[in-house]
Amino acid sequence: MRSVTSLLATSVLAITLGSVAASAQAVPAPATVAGPVVVLVPAAAPADVASIDAIITALYDVISGPAGQPRDWNRMRSLFIPGGRLMPTGVRQGATALRVYEVNDYIALSGPQLERVGFRERELARRIEQFGHI
């Protein structure tokens, strides 16, 4: 009886170790990058990024304008770090809604409408809280 129990325990252990080894081999190694990932962003005008207020003013300047006025989308791109997001909120079907866009997504989806019908950003309030460079 003892040898059957021992044999059973050894078999379970062997199967478990075998499946662990097989699953470890099935996981692909992470891809390696030969160098840093480069994201091309237009250089910002120093006055546009001199302060948080300057960045917001430049952003409003880009998206605001009359119908038919082309927008300087490269200027807008220059105000954001790679991966930066715009998160406009509003009310849709009676509920508050949040949309999240990367800069190029916002430009592609909203740009034609802004240029076709015109738009003027109107700020209701602003409060800036800053700690160091954050």
Count up the helices.
Answer: 4
What portion of residues belong to β-strands? 5-15%
Low-confidence stretches: 4-21
What's the count of strands? 4
Mean pLDDT: 82
Terminal CA distance reads 70 Å
| Main sheet characteristics | 2 strands, antiparallel
In which order are the strands of the major sheet placed? 1-4
Percentage of residues assigned to helices: 40-55%
Could you describe the 3D structure shown?
The chain has about 130 residues and is mainly alpha-helical. The protein has a domain at about 45-115. About 45% of the residues lie in helices and about 10% in strands. The chain has helices at about 1-25, 50-65, 75-80, 105-115, and strands spanning about 85, 90, 95-100, 100. A hairpin with a 2-residue loop joins β2 (about 90) and β3 (about 95-100). The protein is globular.
Describe the structure in brief.
The protein contains four helices and four strands.
List keywords for this structure.
mainly alpha; two-stranded antiparallel sheet; 9% strand
Describe the protein's topology:
Layout: H1 2-26, H2 52-63, H3 73-78, E1 85-86, E2 89-92, E3 95-98, E4 101-102, H4 103-117
Antiparallel strand pairs: 1-4, 2-3
